[in-house]
TrEMBL record:
SUPFAM superfamilies linked to this entry: Glutamine synthetase/guanido kinase
Keyword Nucleotide-binding in annotation: yes
Key words of the record: Allosteric enzyme, ATP-binding, Kinase, Nucleotide-binding, Transferase
Entry keyword annotation includes ATP-binding: yes
Protein name, per record: Protein-arginine kinase
Similarity comment: family membership: Belongs to the ATP:guanido phosphotransferase family.
Domain Phosphagen kinase C-terminal: 24-255
Residues the entry annotates as binding ATP: 27-31, 92, 126, 177-181, 208-213
Gene name of the record: mcsB
GO molecular function: ATP binding; creatine kinase activity; protein arginine kinase activity
Domain of life (superkingdom): Bacteria
Residue runs in coiled coils: none
Function: Catalyzes the specific phosphorylation of arginine residues in a large number of proteins. Is part of the bacterial stress response system. Protein arginine phosphorylation has a physiologically important role and is involved in the regulation of many critical cellular processes, such as protein homeostasis, motility, competence, and stringent and stress responses, by regulating gene expression and protein activity.
Amino acid sequence: MTLQNFMNEAISPWMREEGPDSDIVLSSRIRLARNFANVSYPIIADKDKLEEIRDFFRDNYENQSFEEYKDFAFVAIGDLSPVEKRVLVEKHLISPHLAENAEIAAALISENEQVSLMVNEEDHIRIQLYLPGFQLENALQKAFTFDDFLEEKVNYAFDETRGYLTSCPTNVGTGMRASVMMHLPALAMTKQINRMIPAINQLGLVVRGIYGEGSEAIGSIFQISNQITLGKTEEDIVEDLQSVVKQLIDHERKARSRIMEQSRTSLEDRIFRSYGVLEYSRVIESKEAAVCLSNVRLGIDLGFIENVSRNILNELMILTQPGFLQQYAKRTLTANERDVLRASLIRERLQLEK
């Protein structure tokens, strides 16, 4: 597996699969933060020591496979162009923080892009494992198995009382962030999500945008994750998150039904106007594209729009991002050039569905 494989396709192979409740839950993710015992954290460690850690993962895991995760590609972040780094961030294969730590950072990415391991981010190791749809428990067990696989060669920094030791105190304990990516257009349309977010925060969970901390919830896509990692087991954290997600799924479905009953014509008009904008626009900004794509995805889920894949939202939300557009064009683009190319690619993709 080469870097170019990750650059060529907007949608990761695992994202083409259907999962439970995938009309609302786009993906489930488990992220585990780990550090080497008796080695300073990346924020204060010597460059030579961090290079040793980076080289350790290259020497031991490059081109290796584990269970269904095949042919791990080793990517030295410092060797990437700014556009290549941005594409990997847009595909959620690395974090913005890892991209900034380019000189000593690296990533190991499985062939199906379901597992990525970030090296020398905020911690020495950040394991990410994704599954389509609402599969938190399954994702947790798979992440545990992969974590055990790494621990065969890595002596983790662990304290019997505090748990896994991490660079940031908010990750001490399990070192785990569990999250789901949800498409909640009906709750956004009815403004119910605005009332729900404060209540969710009070439960020790956090609601963010599509790219995590500090990002905006564009296209009615929200990321729900745990904030507490200390004092609870991984299973308890996942159970709490699952309980809230199930309620959100229920509220979203009820909101869709109410809109269908009370404002069906207006809803259809909104959906098909968005489809028309995507199909015929010659220039479109990223936020407008995200809103229209969200409406079209809702139209697909409700059966208004047929013969268009549900995966179109996942694919075009990434394909139309600035990094991917410039990767596609093979050059740096101005904002207006990106808007023109974005419209062109959306039209082209919709034509393929017909």
